[in-house]
Design brief:
Arc Repressor Mutant, subunit A; 20% strand; alpha+beta; 3-stranded parallel β-sheet; 189 residues; 4-stranded antiparallel β-sheet; 2 domains; Rossmann fold
């Protein structure tokens, strides 16, 4: 219980037969007292409908009866992980910069930052790929598909984005990787 309350896990696999506390009580305590929303897969030999209903009522996200095939356990864990990841992936974070993909709100060091639509596309791609470099070609395709404008419009958009994201702050997050593209990272050297 201590580990589940003090550490972050992708998925918890929980047996009903535990020493000291049964799995149902553990799951209820985790959900109610600990306010932990980590997906829980109950893995048990108890196979009646009543047992399953009690498991879900206690807060389980899935229920698998022993004996089981390892492949089934694997795909169930993957599904729980993907579902969980989809919920948390709405918030992108790099250092003190956050972007909520649902609301398109950008904050840095607790301050709201206005970003124009083109800058928002660029910022989201850079944050999703952090700390990797995103090529100029990828960013141009993101903004203009197969018809980039004449001149160096991407550089202009990156300049505006840097003015909003980096200029008011001490540490720079967005860096140019000469002749390749751009990257955003806390250690963007």
């Amino acid at each position: 219980m201590h580990l589940a309350l003090t550490h972050s896990y992708d998925v918890i696999v929980l047996d009903l037969m535990l020493p000291g506390m049964d799995g149902l009580s553990f799951c209820k305590k985790l959900r109610l007292d600990g306010n932990v929303d980590t997906p829980v897969l109950m893995l048990t030999a108890r196979d009646t409908l009543d047992d399953k209903l009690k498991g879900f009522a206690a807060g389980a996200d899935d229920y698998l009866v022993k004996p089981f095939a390892l492949q089934e356990l694997h795909v169930r864990l993957q599904a729980l992980y993907k579902r969980r990841r989809g919920k948390t992936d709405k918030l992108l974070t790099v250092a003190d910069l956050t972007l909520n993909k649902s609301t398109l709100q950008v904050h840095r060091a607790g301050r709201h930052i206005d970003v124009n639509p083109a800058g928002m596309k660029l910022l989201q791609r850079l944050m999703e790929e952090t700390p990797s470099v995103v090529t100029r070609e990828d960013l141009e395709t993101l903004l203009w598909a197969d018809e980039p404008p004449d001149g160096d419009a991407l550089r202009s958009h990156m300049y505006k984005l840097r003015q909003a994201i980096d200029k008011p702050f001490d540490n720079i997050l967005i860096r140019t990787v000469h002749r390749i593209g751009y990257r955003i990272a806390e250690d963007a050297h």
